[in-house]
Specification:
By secondary structure, this protein is an alpha/beta fold. It has a single domain, classed as Rossmann fold. Helices cover 44% and strands 16% of the residues. The protein contains eight helices and nine strands. A seven-stranded parallel β-sheet has the order 3-2-1-4-5-6-9, sandwiched between helices. Strands 7-8 form a two-stranded antiparallel ribbon. A hairpin with a 2-residue loop joins strand 7 and strand 8.
Length: 275
């Protein structure tokens, strides 16, 4: 019996990178997954990979910052799999510069993707979770659900050039601790995983692979200067950045039955780096 057998997981931003690794990890433990990405093609690839693992998956393609997305995401899970058990708010990107060069649009975009979008998803999920939990309690059933919000070491300690990103990720920590207090009565464990340097296309050395991402009508530059990556590796006690699979492992820990008495916590997955 797999530990997440029959559970229904929603993972935003799961078409590639860390989000895809999270979706595959949860599926490998038996969860059925609602996959999300802006790109229909990569979302379909993740769905196919999940099905090859023996779990079921459907895609909910679209921009998580759209006002109706939260309801559509949750409705997809309920209509496809009759439930919501795990929510991973993973979708996000960086749009960096120092404060004197940062526009209102840039700052607000970071809050929209990292704070407002997760809020709307969780608010939509409450319409299913609260009555389901009450019915389970009345029937004498002990069912635990999981919320894992993805933050960053920048959200905990700040990072030069990332005012908007750090603000959005820091707010997500406050949301996590608040919702843990609100939803404890419903047997929902609400936790946060904050990543350090994880090797993805967003953190690839400049000049290697894709250097831009299309987010709506915006073209966002990606990549990190090789000298900065070298310095980061030297600062990390384990001596290297993490893989998407290792990042997914940290999220899975908070989704597992062993975490049924852990709530309102922030797990730092950074290879030992504490700024």
């Amino acid at each position: 019996m797999k530990k997440l057998e029959g559970k229904v997981a929603l993972v935003s931003g799961s078409g590639r990178g860390i989000g895809q690794a999270i979706a595959l990890k949860l599926a490998s433990e038996g969860a059925n997954v609602v996959v999300n990405d802006l790109d229909e093609t990569v979302a379909a690839e993740t769905v196919s990979a999940i099905e090859m693992l023996g779990s079921k998956a459907v895609a909910c393609v679209g921009d998580v910052t759209a006002k109706d997305f939260g309801n559509r995401f949750v409705d997809t899970a309920v209509s496809s799999f009759d439930g919501v058990d795990i929510i991973v708010n993973n979708a996000g990107y960086t749009w960096d510069t120092v404060i004197q060069k940062m526009t209102d649009e840039q700052f607000e975009a970071m809050l929209d993707i990292h704070t407002v979008a997760p809020f709307r998803i969780l608010r939509a999920a409450s319409d299913f979770i609260r009555p389901a939990a009450k019915a389970e309690k009345a029937a004498g059933q002990d069912v635990y659900r999981k919320v894992v919000n993805i933050s960053s070491i920048a959200g905990l300690y700040g990072n030069a050039g990332q005012m908007g990103y750090a603000a959005g990720k820091s707010a997500l920590v406050g949301m996590t601790r608040t919702l843990a207090k609100e939803w404890g009565r419903y047997n929902v464990n609400v936790n946060c995983v904050a990543f350090g340097y994880i090797k993805t296309r967003m953190t690839a050395p400049l000049g290697e692979g894709e250097s831009e991402a299309q987010v709506g009508n915006r073209t966002i530059s990606m990549g990190v200067h090789p000298d900065m990556l070298k310095a980061m590796n030297q600062m990390i006690p384990l001596g290297r950045g993490g893989t998407p699979e290792e990042a997914a492992g940290a999220v899975y820990l908070m989704c597992s039955p062993e975490a049924n008495y852990i709530s309102g916590q922030v797990l730092l997955a950074s290879g030992g780096l504490i700024m």
